[in-house]
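Please predict the structure of the following assembly.
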Amino acid sequence: MTTPITYHTIDGRNAGTWVVLIGFILLSALGGLAALYMEHNGHWVTGMTNHVVWGLPHVFALFLIVSSTGALNVASIGSVFEKAPYRPFGRLSGLTALALQAGGLAILVLDLGRSDRMVTFVTYYNFSSIFSMNVILYSGFFGFVIFYLWTMMDQRMGHMYRPAALFAFIWRLILTTGSGSIFGFMISRSAYHSTLVAPMFIALSMSFGVAMYCLVMLWLNASTGRRYPSPELLRRLRILLAILVGVSLYMVLVHHVTNLYVAERRDVERFLLVDSGIYAPLLWIGFGLLGSLIPIFLVLSPAGSIGSAKATLGLASALVVLGGNCFMYVFIVGGEAFPLELFPGKILSSAAGDGAIASYVPSLPEIVLAIGGYGVAGLLLVVGLWAFPMLPSSFAAAEQKAEAEAKVRATAAH
Amino acid sequence: MSESCDVSRRGLLGAVAAFGAVSLAPGVMLYARSADEPVSAKVRWGMLVDTTQCDKDCDACVEACNTEFGLVSHGRPDSDPQWIRKLTVTDPSTGRSQSFPVMCQHCAHPPCVDVCPTGASFKRADGIVLINRHICVGCRYCEMACPYMARNFVHENLTDQKPYAPRGKGTSEACTMCVHRVDAGGTPACVEACSKSGRVAMLFGDLNDPNSEISKRVRSVNTTQIRSDLRTDPGVRYQGL
């Protein structure tokens, strides 16, 4: 006989919780003020131009949106793929996914030239636009994940748990495909236009999302004094992160090698991989070394050989997040900095900057806005943890129950 | 009161239409469309730029566009509005260099229209690609998607706007092919300025009318479209490239 899983909220009377909460409120408020400043003065106060149209806010926003879908992995592995050690942490996974998605979308919306017209996204609709499709996908993601959380938290909805998990999992794959296709469908820029971008984004979302989830879980471990994650989940998360980071690295490698094989794309690849001032180091060192190889080494090293298993998982996750943002910067800004090729193979020049590598230096307001997105995500996460019982009180008991249920299902299946 | 104004405006436009053809430039005959008359797909407005006639030191077309729409520089060329620009193209293998204007290419299959989430970017039946500034949210996806770098984002506060071409801070904008002039039976300001400069490197007209000057020219001389490999079918063609 196993003990029922019980969940608890974070302690609202804890001073640490208040400090974190106020910190996230301040970050969010500063982000909002930065957006107001940009809206009032016009976007010339940012580093973004008619060449680098999307800048640092979009880098952070896309990272958060992409990692949001990956943060749902833990819940999906526990439910769709029936891996018992993950199940007690499914609620936290769903909440983290929602918070990250909201943070990313907040940045995107506040960076619009006319944020006040946000309702236009709903009242006017262009079905040929992948951007429009993403609006549906974002909304659907919130709907599916909230419903999924409901089935996890309400015993009466237990019969819908599996279908909800399956739909949320499928939807997150479609959503990330949509996010990648915003770039992959773009015929104008040779750095983006590729069918590989969507699957590459799915791979990246997996590693970025699991890394973000691990950071959240380890932060709760430190702040609540509870031993998250469970030893078994810790072991599995280390292996999972290594595999997902490896797959992401592979997809990025294939993307660039494919482009290198196409003669007309060699110039942009040379720019991104070799010649560019900041982009090549960010890609090779930031994403490749710090964000991929070192994290894989850290989590695959025998537990305790470098540091505690949790510490190495935390460090590896932080490096994956850092590398992920480096990748997004190179992918988005680097792709724009390379000039449009109106006449491929010819040398172009004009007063508008044709043929020249575009420069981009993010200004303070857009940096603050971009960080504000993390503030919004953190704020929603803390409020969610405060308002709803998301954290398993006893993961050991929870694991026993989940394993028992899995055995019953397996026996029934045979 | 407003009704009488409207009637008189319609009357004026109708009178222009009734007079029929208006001679606008050597060899170019256009027809004014009354305000009640819908835009027709029977027409496809287009331009032909003869690069052999374009002087690299002349920027009459650029000046005319800036004057027509009140586009002013803030000393920030990367974010200043540049609806039309003089592009210099050099072949590195031969050293041959050419200079000619590039603006919105008014594609038959415009990527900017495909990607716009709200439908603010649209193509009129007569081929002119425009932006409805009332529903543009300023996402700049059209700027990203345009292969011709034709779209601009309004980065600055605006003053002294032209009543026939309102602009909006925080929205995208581009060459309108001087739709306000075209609908009144005129030619785009850049074409007019080029003609006045004596070079006549730009020709405007109806590509669907087999008897128009532009149609005759594109039938008789070799012309190309920029990035024709993308199959966007621009309405602006270039001769001598």
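The helical segments of chain B are 2-19, 60-69, 111-115, 141-145, 179-182, 189-196, 213-220. Chain B has one domain: 2-239.
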